[in-house]
């Protein structure tokens, strides 16, 4: 059994393809009026690329960090439309989500590419949040652990040193944006399997999939759940703050 208390909790919002200058400003200002939340827990918001400078500027000097939602495997060159990890670091963005199921699904991202993004991010001083998770059919077939281990295999192959510098997020695809949440026991079971497979007591493992203020506390009570990656609920400042408070 892992030592939960030695791992700092982390709650990351994933805004996905949402936002506007005005709306972001309102949401971020609302988050900033609750400074008491920040000591025991890392908090960050992962915003669309174009809004990164705005978020960095508004959150400057606060304990809320800013992350991106993807990063190129390339450092520079003829890769139209891509954004490098060094560019993220250059503008003050220190976190990035990699391998989100929506990128795996709609952009055919392979686990090998995800591992390459992990290295690109870490080389630039940006911490990757690596998402893994099974489809509903995998779970119905009893294959969820194998599927998740296959996704993790190229990450584990990067070595213990690398694993100690990243964050993992278990996001069962059937729970993302659906209102269905893995039960705390289902999530805990998978987190425990992931931790054992990665052979790391220290790596933080977030849960993601319809996390809301109402279900956050029971998920966070589980010994191997170190926080959450929050999609839809991160677009509502009060809801997001209640998750952080949990
Ligand atoms: C996500 O996008 O990573 C996510 C977990 O979304 P939601 O919270 O909306 O299910």
Low-confidence blocks of residues: none
Order of helices and strands: EHEHEHEHHEHHHEHEHEH
Indicate the overall shape: globular
Overall pLDDT confidence: 95
Please identify, by name, the CATH architecture. Alpha-Beta Barrel
Number of domains: 1
Strand count: 8
Query: Mind telling me the C-alpha Rg?
Result: 17 Å
CATH topology: TIM Barrel
How are the SSEs ordered, and which strands pair?
Blueprint: E1 9-14, H1 21-32, E2 41-46, H2 52-59, E3 64-68, H3 85-90, E4 95-98, H4 101-106, H5 111-123, E5 127-132, H6 136-140, H7 144-156, H8 160-163, E6 167-170, H9 184-198, E7 204-208, H10 213-220, E8 227-230, H11 237-245
Parallel strand pairs: 1-2, 1-8, 2-3, 3-4, 4-5, 5-6, 6-7, 7-8
Helix pairs in contact: 1-2, 1-11, 5-7, 7-9, 10-11
Give structural notes.
By secondary structure, the protein is an alpha/beta fold. It has a single domain, classed as Aldolase class I (TIM Barrel, Alpha-Beta Barrel). Helix content is 40%, strand content 16%. The chain has an eight-stranded parallel β-barrel with strand order 1-2-3-4-5-6-7-8, surrounded by six helices. Strand 6 (167-170), helix 9 (184-198) and strand 7 form a beta-alpha-beta unit. Helix 5 (111-123) crosses helix 7, helix 7 runs parallel beside helix 9 (184-198) and helix 10 packs parallel to helix 11. The longest helix has 15 residues, at 184-198. The radius of gyration is 17 Å and the shape is globular. 43% of the residues are buried. Phosphoenolpyruvate binds at residues 14, 16, 171, 176-177, 208-211, 229-233. The site of phosphoenolpyruvate (PEP) has 14 residues, from strand 8.
């Amino acid at each position: 059994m892992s030592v939960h208390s030695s791992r700092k909790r982390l709650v990351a919002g994933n805004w996905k393809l949402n936002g506007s200058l005005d709306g972001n400003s309102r949401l971020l200002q609302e988050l900033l009026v609750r400074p008491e939340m920040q000591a025991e827990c890392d908090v960050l918001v992962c915003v669309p690329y174009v809004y990164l400078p705005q978020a960095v500027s508004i959150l400057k000097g606060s304990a809320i960090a800013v992350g991106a939602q993807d990063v190129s495997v390339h450092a520079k060159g003829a890769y139209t439309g891509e954004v490098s990890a060094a560019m993220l670091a250059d503008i003050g963005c220190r976190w990035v989500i990699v391998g989100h199921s929506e990128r795996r699904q709609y952009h055919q991202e392979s686990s090998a590419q995800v591992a390459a993004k992990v290295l690109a991010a870490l080389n630039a001083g940006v911490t990757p949040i690596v998402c893994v998770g099974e489809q509903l059919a995998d779970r119905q077939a009893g294959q969820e652990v194998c599927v998740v281990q296959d996704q993790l295999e190229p990450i584990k192959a990067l070595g213990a040193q690398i694993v100690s510098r990243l964050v993992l997020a278990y996001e069962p695809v059937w729970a993302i944006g659906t209102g269905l949440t893995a039960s705390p026991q289902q999530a805990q079971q998978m987190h425990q399997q992931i931790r054992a497979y990665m052979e790391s007591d220290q790596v933080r493992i977030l849960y993601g999939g319809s996390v809301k203020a109402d279900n956050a506390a029971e998920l966070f009570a589980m010994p191997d759940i170190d926080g959450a990656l929050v999609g839809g609920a991160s677009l509502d400042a009060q809801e997001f703050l209640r998750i952080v408070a949990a």
